[in-house]
Every structure is written in C-alpha cells, then in structure tokens.
Amino acid sequence: MDVATLKTVNAERRARRAVVLVTDLTDGGDRIVHEGDTVAGELGEAVKSAFRSGKSGVVEADGKSFFLNAHLPHARLVIIGAVHISQALAPMAEIAGYPVEIIDPRTAFASEERFPGIALYPEWPQDVLEKRPLDAYTGLVLVTHDPKIDDFPLKAGLDAGCFYIGALGSRKTHAKRVSRLTAMGATAEQIERIHAPIGLDIGAASPAEIAVAVLAQAIRALRTRGLDGQREAKGEAA
Q1: Which pairs with CB-CB distance under 8 Å and at least 24 residues apart come from 54-57?
Q2: C-beta atoms surrounding 80 within 10 Å
Q3: What CATH fold (topology level) applies to the domain 76-224?
Q4: Residue 113: beta bridge partners?
Q5: For the chain, what percent of residues have pLDDT higher than 90?
Q6: 122-149 burial code (b ≥16 CB/10 A, e <16)
C-alpha cells in the first residue's frame, strides 16, 4: 500500500466511513472501494460480502486472486430513553460487541446507579447529537414513548442513514409518529426504514425479552444491509 492510499484509508476510518482495499495478488495493484460503489462481476459480490461481514481475506473472483482488506467503523448502539428495556439491552449489546450510549434528559432515569459502566448522557438528544452525530454505523433505539424526546433523534437517524432504527410503540402510536415526521420533512421511503413496533416478533413480554428481540433485529439489520429482497418483516415485540 502506498502512502497516498494509506492516508486515504486512515481519513475514511477517522470519518467513520467504510472502505475495502482491494489488492490484485497477480500484479500487486490496489484500489479503494467505498461502500455503495459499483464493482462488477464476482469481485463485486465478494466486496459486498466484505462490507457486510467486516472480514478480510483472499478471494478468487473473475479468474484472479484478490486480497480484500475491510475497514469498517465499529458499529455502536445509541438508545434514546433510560428505561427498563434499556437496562436489559445495554449490557446485552455490549456483550455482543456493540458499544452503547444512552441519552435521556430525565435525570431520575438516567443515573449511574441504574446504568453502571454505560456511557450515559442525561441531556436533551439534540445537544448530545450535535457533539456525537449519528452515522451509517449507528443503530438507533427509541424507547421513551415521549415525542419531545424521541422525534428529534429519530429524524436525525433517518437523515444519517443509521443501519437500524427501532421505535417503541403500538401501530396507533406509530401512525401519529409518521404524521409528525412527515411534517418535519421525512420522506415515505425514510419512514419505511423504521422498525415499529420494535423488535423481532418472538412474542416478547418482559423488558428483558423485548431487549433480546431488539438486539437480534439490530444485528440482522447490520449484517443484511444491501441484500435486495431480504428485508425482514417488521416485528411486534412492543
């Protein structure tokens, strides 16, 4: 890898943008592929797989050997709402390898005692997200049931292209949410990306079971992004 290529890769990593460095093992030539770039043939399928899995390695494609070096941002989970579901979801997500941040301006809920060892922001989401913006490698979970808290980060998550957006509430609640988002300028295509009711439909009843359903849905969304025709059915956990 030459110096210019290394600088480009490092700049993309700092900006939390995914790239795959494709090296032709026949002649040593390499190129940087950004997520969403079009790559033809078998190599294109291999590159898409690398973006989904984050795994690097040698592939045989189009009669040649390539080394794909995947550089993906570390996926994280941002939870809006320091509620019972969040208390179960946060440690589960961190065990699974997803750093968690919880945002809730209600200091009675957002306390160190209730969330030991978790990155906690007892502030309004708009203030936190100005400093720590959402991106395509952020999963967004909204569980406050309060539009004053949820709506701003929800619209921000849609605009940022978060890999997962799940919102707690019934279909009636979601219909009202859709009306508000439309008034905020969200498109029908964006709104369709929201998983509401939140979580895979596993018949979850308790906060811990809902947390399992949400985490599974978020992981699936991350690992299947870009697979046409494989969008999961919306769950009905909560």
Answers
A1: none
A2: 29
A3: Rossmann fold (3.40.50)
A4: none
A5: 77
A6: bebbeebbeeeebbbbbbbbbbbeeeeb
pLDDT tens digits for 150-183? Answer: 999 999 999 999 999 999 998 899 999 999 999 9
DSSP letter string, the chain: --HHHHHHHHHHHHTT--EEEEEETTT--EEEEETT----HHHHHHHHHHHHH---EEEEETTEEEEEEEE-PPPEEEEE--SHHHHHHHHHHHHTT--EEEE-S-TTTS-TTTSTTSEEE-S-HHHHHHHS---TTEEEEE-S--HHHHHHHHHHHHHHT-SEEEE-S-HHHHHHHHHHHHHTT--HHHHTT-BSS-S--S---SHHHHHHHHHHHHHHHHHHTT-TT-PPPPP---
Q: At what angle do helices 41-53 and 207-224 cross, to 10 degrees?
A: 150
Going 109 to 112 to 117 to 121, the CA torsion angle's sign is positive
Domain boundaries, the chain: 3-71, 76-224
The predicted model scores a pTM of 0.83
Residue with tokens 């949820």: 150
Residue 228 has pLDDT above 60, yes or no: no
Contact of 166 with 158, CB cutoff 8 Å = no
Structure confidence by residue, pLDDT tens digits, 55-97: 999 999 999 999 999 999 999 999 999 999 999 999 999 999 9
Label residue 69 exposed, middle or buried (CB < 10 Å: 0-12, 13-18, 19+). Answer: middle
